Amino acid sequence: MALGYVRPARPEDAGEIARIQLATWRVAYRRILPRHVLDNLDEEYLARRWSAAVQEPPSGAHRVLVAVEQAEQSYLVGFAASGPPDAESLAPNEPAEALGSGVVAVTDLLVEPRWGRRGHGSRLLAASVDLWRSDGFDRAVAWAFDADAATRKFLTGAGWEPDGAARALDVDDMLVNQLRLHVAVPAEGAAEGDAAAG
């Protein structure tokens, strides 16, 4: 396993987070999303959004974490973002209160493909679980593309399960199916592998 660690994102990380997001999407989603959509994503726009997410989060429970690989020098290799659920966390026609209290939504959990299978995803998830627990969350949800077998395998290997919700995103007149997964956040001292393995 690689030497690495997870830390809170800093403002100066925004550009690298955006680069990792684009690089990962263009590899992982190349058979899921239209190529021209991936080609036309604006890295500077993404960097501005990540800068705002890090510097001006909507609440103290909104978190952006980064994974760092340690070698001769350190490299940012992945990131995770989560926070209280919003409209993007809901299924179509699902009422705002459907998820209930105590739920945290994962909006992003990405490791750049060239740094995959080195434990970074598991470290990001484990660090997120620790923060969710300290913030009082008892359940987490995340959307995954139906066709994204790698993400679904990673999450289900960590104890996540589909919660029955599904939706189809309209991506430039192409419908892309997603399903929502969920997991209980283990109590302090419980078997953390239930929510943070993989």
UniProtKB/TrEMBL annotation:
It comes from the Bacteria. Residues 4-182 form the N-acetyltransferase domain. One of its GO terms (molecular function) is acyltransferase activity. Gene3D superfamilies: 3.40.630.30. Its EC number is 2.3.-.-. Keywords: Acyltransferase, Transferase. SUPFAM superfamilies: Acyl-CoA N-acyltransferases (Nat). The keyword NADP does not apply. It is an enzyme of class 2 (transferase). PROSITE patterns: GNAT. InterPro entries: Acyl_CoA_acyltransferase, Bact_Acetyltransf, GNAT_dom. Transmembrane segments: none annotated. This is GNAT family N-acetyltransferase. It comes from Micromonospora harpali.
